[in-house]
Write a structure and sequence with these properties.
Blueprint lengths: L1 H10 L9 E5 L4 H12 L3 E6 L2 H12 L10 H6 L8 E5 L6 H12 L7 E6 L15 H29 L3 E6 L14 H21 L4 E8 L2 E2 L4 H4 L4 H8 L6 E2 H4 L1 H8 L10 E4 L6 H7 L1 H7 L7 H13 L4 E6 L2 H5 L5 H13 L3 E7 L12 H12 L7 E5 L6 H11 L4 E2 L20 H10 L8 H15 L6 H6 L10
Parallel strand pairs: 1-2, 1-4, 2-3, 4-5, 5-6, 6-9, 7-8, 10-11, 11-12, 12-13
InterPro entries: Aldolase_TIM, NAD(P)-bd_dom_sf, PYR_CT, SDR_fam
GO molecular function: catalytic activity
Protein name: Pyruvate carboxyltransferase domain-containing protein
Length: 503
């Protein structure tokens, strides 16, 4: 066992970072917290910096209570580098969106946190995504806030830490946590400010690497892809996330920060990376590979393979028409859940609907679910539909949304009820369940208005619709078309209705 540890230490010297002092911004949660804990286990002393001092203190308490015999390092080595058994983590309040003097004050406090032991590595992890908006809807205030947090903050913290490193003539390592959103092949619509700020972080990384090399300060960046973390944990619980990974990630899964990111960060902190600077390390399981996207048609797959139908030629005409006229136009996103998507509406469709709902004066986006007899009923249950709805309402106001369900398997009402509980109050339906779909063989047609109104009446929801007169209308049109009523309510209560002549 001892020999295996010696071999491992020789091949991976960055497993042990005894005596290194590392400052981590955005350390109160998410990746920042995880970085602090992992670096502490490697033997580092941690300066945890963020705005939420109470949560920072929680991180520091957890680190200071860690056993010095943790598996990733030997107790003797760690003990030798913690004189007097002092704290291994200290909290420093830092708002990266503050002005320069305030940030400099926090950096100076962090620099002196461990006395003669100075900061050797800085991890610029603090950042924020901001709201999802197109460039035309993005406010100047939102733009400035995202840039102040992600780019200006990273520059100012790096500047003041690097000045102290230079003056101490000690060298050091700066690691910026960026994103694949800042990479050309990682762009997505709706995140203009975030994407531009992360692209700026990548450029900042390269230019500072050029300028600080003379002081033996290396600067690198890590650009993660789809990762599970404390902040994204809730998102990763969604059942449709694996489907997203299956479509856009060549390795067909999402990443976990430990060890995918933590091991890389350890390496960039360790002295063995002293000849490594100016690099943007992309850790995304191949998501942004140009050859993969080009040969496999990944961007097209994200839309087409999820069975999202965008009528592009008509959409341009509709946009122009709706912009100039005060009319209501329905933009219908039809998603064939069972065929490909497994219930996940692709981000491209969400952003497109969001853009249209914001740019057009009176537009309603309809989330439509339908299927023929060759599609399994389980795909249309609320367990499948609700995750899609939750994803969309995070980007589009509920008053801009309607739901449209066909009733092939008798599940339309349960899905409508689930939609109402989420906050969508506009429901498409048709009298007597008319309007089948020519593209879905065996499709029974849209849910009957009679059934929807009857359910709402039973729930005590006011509709101002007389269900008996509604059934008379359904009976009239059904007889005219020579078909049976598609309404279960009309069939069940038909004997109690008045003759059509009294309508």
């Amino acid at each position: 066992m001892e020999n295996s540890h010696q071999v491992s230490d020789h091949l991976e010297p960055w497993r042990h970072l005894h005596g290194k002092v590392v400052m981590v911004t955005g350390a109160s949660s998410g990746l920042g917290r995880e970085f602090c804990l992992d670096l502490a286990k490697a033997g580092c002393r941690i300066v945890a910096a963020a705005r939420r001092i109470d949560r920072l203190q929680s991180v520091c308490n957890q680190i200071n209570q860690l056993s010095i015999t943790a598996p990733s390092f030997s107790s003797s080595a760690v003990a030798d580098n913690i004189p007097g058994g002092g704290p291994r983590a200290v909290a420093v309040e830092l708002d990266v969106s503050a002005d320069g003097p305030a940030i400099e004050k926090s950096v100076n406090k962090a620099w002196d946190a461990f006395g003669v032991e100075r900061i050797y590595a800085l991890v610029n992890n603090a950042g924020g995504r901001g709201n999802v908006n197109s460039a035309l809807e993005l406010s100047e205030e939102e733009w400035n806030h995202v840039f102040r947090t992600n780019l200006t903050g990273s520059w100012l913290v790096s500047k003041f830490v690097a000045i102290r490193m230079r003056d101490a003539d000690q060298g050091g390592s700066i690691v910026n946590i960026s994103s694949i959103a800042g990479i050309n092949r990682g762009h997505l619509p709706g995140g203009t400010a975030y994407i531009c700020s992360k692209a700026g972080v990548n450029t900042l990384t390269k230019t500072m690497a050029m300028e600080l090399g003379v002081h033996k300060i290396r600067v690198n960046a890590i650009s993660p892809g789809l990762f599970r973390s404390e902040i994204t944990g809730g998102l990763m619980q969604k059942k449709w996330i694996p489907n997203v990974a299956m479509k856009i990630v060549p390795l067909r899964t999402y990443g976990t920060s430990d060890p995918a990111l933590t091991s890389l960060l350890r390496y960039l902190v360790h002295d063995s990376s002293e000849y490594v600077s100016g690099n943007i390390y992309i850790v995304d399981a191949g998501t942004t590979l140009p050859d993969m996207k080009k040969s496999e048609g990944w961007w097209t797959d994200v839309e087409e393979m999820y069975a999202t139908k965008w009528y592009t030629a008509s959409k341009i005409k509709i946009e122009n028409l709706a912009t100039g006229l005060w009319i209501e136009i329905e933009i219908v996103i039809e998603f064939a859940i069972a065929i490909e998507s497994g219930g996940c509406l692709p981000a491209s469709a969400m952003f497109g609907l969001h853009k249209l709902s914001r740019q057009m004066r009176n537009v309603k986006g309809t989330l439509a679910g339908f299927g023929g007899g060759n599609v399994e009923a389980s795909y249309f249950s609320s367990r499948t539909v609700v995750p899609m709805l939750e994803a969309v309402i995070g980007m589009v106001p509920t008053d801009k949304l309607a739901v449209h369900f066909h009733d092939t398997y008798g599940l339309a009402l349960s899905n409508i009820l689930a939609s109402l509980q989420i906050g969508i109050s506009t429901v498409d339906s048709s009298v007597s369940g008319l309007w089948g779909c020519p593209y879905a063989k065996g499709d029974s047609g849209n849910v009957a208005t009679e059934d929807v109104v009857y359910m709402l009446n039973g729930l005590g929801v006011k509709t101002n619709v007389d269900v008996k007169k509604l059934m008379l209308a359904g009976e009239f049109i059904s007889k005219h078309l020579g078909r049976s009523s598609g309404s279960k309510t009309a069939v069940a209560l038909g004997k109690d209705t008045a003759p059509a002549s009294k309508l």
